[in-house]
Amino acid sequence: MKLFRYTHQGQSRVGVMPAGQSSHFADLASLVTDVPHEIEALFEPALRARVAQSLAQTPASALKPLAGLAFEVPIAQPPKIVCMGLNYADHAKEGGNARPEYPSFFMRVATSMTPHNGPIVRPKVSTQLDYEAELAVVIGQKTRHLNADNALDCVFGYACFNDGSLRDYQRKSAQWTIGKNFDATGGFGPWIVTPDELPPGAEGLRIQSRLNGQAMQDANTRDFLWNVREALVIITECMTLEPGDVVITGTPAGVGYARNPPVWMAPGDVCEIDIEGIGVLSNTIVQEA
Questions:
Q1: Phi/psi of residue 206, each to 5°?
Q2: Burial, 109: exposed, middle or buried (Cβ in 10 Å; 0-12, 13-18, 19+)?
Q3: Among 36, 206, 212, 278, which residue carries the largest CB count within 10 Å?
Q4: pLDDT value for 90
């Protein structure tokens, strides 16, 4: 299934798409009537199974078109957004870094996110707004001290992420956090795809960024230095992962700052993140008022 949040008549709703569908959906309330209208309710496996069964029995004629929907970020208030850096060797190399022995980590905050078809905001203080195509992993159950055998059991699903970065602010200190948390710079969506629709750990998926239709990054999730399974093991050595947490897994080569001359996202640009089997996240760049 594909699961997403959208706004209808001023209220947040949850949409559900069956496997193989890309243009029509069912509203969660039409599938099950006794649950909160929140994606988080579907972290419960038994409820998810009920929804899947109801969706399978829903005729195509009863589905609604996606066109014109006002999407919201898939998880409104993640308890944590844990981001990995330098998780592709080619990206580490283009930034002048040796192949790391351990991942770089930083955190994002909820106010830094923006939904599918929502604006990515270039702030007043900088023009160095860069794109980063990334795979997002949404956690569905509380967990700690994972191992290679059980690491993927906690995964609720996968989504696209654009880790929009203000490069000059990222480099004002040894910590990247300030350059990664400007309001509405991180595109997230368009939906969460449940693991049953993808290879284990979302491995072997083509991942691209496109700026105004031109491919800027083109790689594959098999090129991770630390794949999803390994990343979750490393993270849970340190911290408990909770339902609704989001893990952002790093970006491949081709980012704007490493080009000659650099390429920055500017107002009016459209940036797309395309991950095979998941979908296309699209955002238009606007200038902060």
A1: -70, 135
A2: middle
A3: 278
A4: 72
Cα(109)–Cα(112) distance, rounded to whole angstroms?
6
* Percent of the chain's residues with pLDDT above 70: 97
* DSSP, res 151: G
DSSP 8-state code for residue 202: G
Q: Are strands 119-122 and 279-287 parallel, antiparallel or unpaired?
A: parallel
Distance CA 46, CA 139 (A): 16
Residue 89 one-letter amino acid: A
Model confidence at 65: pLDDT above 90: yes
Q: Closest Cα partner for 251 from 208, 195, 189, 188?
A: 208
- What distance in Å separates the CA atoms of residue 149 and residue 151, rounded to the nearest whole number? 6
Residue 145, classified by CB atoms within 10 Å of its CB into exposed (0-12), middle (13-18) or buried (19+), is exposed
Contact call for residues 278 and 199 (beta carbons, < 8 A): no
Length of the chain: 289
pLDDT for res 273: 98
Across the range 222-230, mean pLDDT stands at: 95
pTM above 0.90, yes or no: yes
As to burial, measured by CB atoms within 10 angstroms (0-12 exposed, 13-18 middle, 19+ buried), residue 42 is buried
Cα-to-chain-centroid distance, residue 195: 14
CA angle, residues 186, 181, 204, in degrees to nearest 5: 40
Report the pLDDT value the prediction gives residue 21, as an integer from 0 to 100: 84
**pLDDT level of residue 86 (50, 70, 90 thresholds):** confident
* Number of Cα atoms under 13 Å in the Cβ half of residue 20: 3
Per-residue DSSP letters for 61-91? GG-EE-TT-EEE-SSSS-S-EEEEES-BHHH
> Quick one: average pLDDT of 66-89?
94
Report how far residue 17's alpha carbon sits from residue 265's, in angstroms, rounded to the nearest whole number. 31
pLDDT for residue 34: 85
